[in-house]
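Hi R.,

Here's the input for the fructose -6-phosphate complex you asked about:
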Amino acid sequence: DKGNHRHFMEKEIYEQPEVISHALAHYVDLGAHTVRTAVSDAIDFASLRGLTISACGTAYLAGLIGKYWFERYARLPVEIDVASEFRYREIPLSTDQAALFISQSGETADTLASLRYCHDAGLKTGAVVNVRESTIARESDAVFPILAGPEIGVASTKAFTCQLTVLASLAIAAGKARGLIHADEERQLVRQLTEMPRLMSGVLNSIEPQIEALSRELSKYKDVLYLGRGTSYPLALEGALKLKEISYIHAEGYAAGELKHGPIALIDENMPVIVIAPHDRFFEKTVSNMQEVAARGGKIIFITDERGAAASKLPTMATITLPNVAEIIAPMVFSLPIQLLAYHTAVFMGTDVDQPRNLAKSVTVE
Ligand code: F6R
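And here is the predicted structure with fructose -6-phosphate in place:
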């Protein structure tokens, strides 16, 4: 049932504040602002030398953001790869590593094969899944449900932000277990996570008219480039993936710093550049990349926060301004304009948004 939404994808985008609340209730104590010990104890983070993550598509991009968090908050080195490569790379693994597998369906063939590979190598395995009865969940030592509820739209939206919520909670748990996050920092980070549903509702209630108008423009182009730094880099990849899979517009995501190593050759007035840049410690650097785009006549769609919008004077095709949010929740909050932009562009293109051509919700063959 789509409720009063035109597509499941739209419904699932709007469900995010609610399902993230459910996920948070499972992983954190909302009164004490701590990560639940049942969660943090499922993997012995204190004794680990490294973490390895394997997944496909959007789930892989959630894992890539998770890598930034585990390394930053828990000083835990993370090796991550798409499951179709991971399973065949003959990676040397050791039992002082744990392995996480991220999958909405819990049935993706390559992710399952990666899990079996790690299991055979004697690693402790954990599944970050939506479907708890799935094969990946059954075969893992620990299961971390994302609690997103059924996701019907082929393009993943709420599963992505719930995966991120779970990974952020696990990274905090890991940082705590490894003696790097102390009680007051834990409380602060958890409090920031708990602010997410309210902030996301506010964004969903305010940005749709602007995004709809912008999507009408975007639907006229054939190529789009997404740029970001830090955790906004995987988000740039996710933005490009979401746009191409449902609107069929060619889109690519790049780390902003890679612009001058190739893609800058493509910049002209025919390829809008979507820059994802909250006002974080990378902001100035991303703005200088934006400058390079503007100097070559590129059209910029700037997705930033209030501080970022006030700090940049560059002319843009559009600036989407989100509230200033804590660094740890920025990837989830910034997912909203990215998802809505892809959604409305696809609606203007008249594609089958919930069932894009050639794609399946669950990829059980390699
Ligand atoms: C993109 C998308 C796919 C899936 C990928 C993995 O919107 O939905 O890229 O993320 O096929 O699927 P799961 O998470 O079920 O393993």
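One thing worth noting: Residues 105 and 320 are 32 Å apart (CA to CA).

Cheers,
M.
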